[in-house]
Design a protein that fits this description.
The chain has 3 helices and 9 strands, in the order E-E-H-H-E-E-H-E-E-E-E-E. It is α/β, with parallel strands linked by helices. Strand 3 and strand 4 form a beta hairpin.
């Protein structure tokens, strides 16, 4: 984890890193698998978006790790479910909030950041994107 310290600006308002989950020994949470398991019995419930939001926050808060070198962080992969329109997540607001509260690491294999916009699956024309303007972020390749 010491290798990550050079990428984390302690004075930054946000701490958002995009890095391949295979590049360092940190536990990545499969958010797609965890969230789908949590909501599968409610898929036809008219309150699905509220149930999913509650489940997502529980998954995130229960998987935050406190590391002696970098502090509190969570690493997530398989994030496609977070873009699911039926779940009605305000994903930009969630990323903004999470990256303020702790270091948020997202698997960079999930997409690409171009001009401060994260595109899921690297599709630059995709409606599955998040505008990261005003959310400081860093993409780490295989540098660690």
């Amino acid at each position: 984890m010491k290798g990550l310290t050079k990428y984390i600006n302690k004075d930054s308002r946000h701490k958002l890193l995009f890095m391949p989950f295979s590049s360092i020994e940190i536990p990545f949470i499969d958010i797609g698998q965890e969230l789908s398991k949590a909501i599968e019995s409610n898929i036809d419930n008219k309150r699905l978006s509220l149930i999913a939001d509650d489940a997502l926050e529980k998954i995130i808060s229960s998987n935050i790790v406190n590391d002696k070198d970098i502090g509190k962080y969570i690493a997530i992969k398989n994030i496609g479910i977070l873009f699911e329109p039926a779940l009605k997540f305000n994903l930009r607001a969630k990323i903004d909030s999470w990256a303020k509260s702790f270091i948020l690491i997202i698997d960079s294999n999930e997409g690409v950041v171009v001009n401060n916009i994260f595109y899921l699956a690297g599709d630059l024309k995709s409606s599955y994107s998040i505008n990261l303007t005003e959310i400081s972020n860093k993409t780490i390749y295989n540098e660690i």
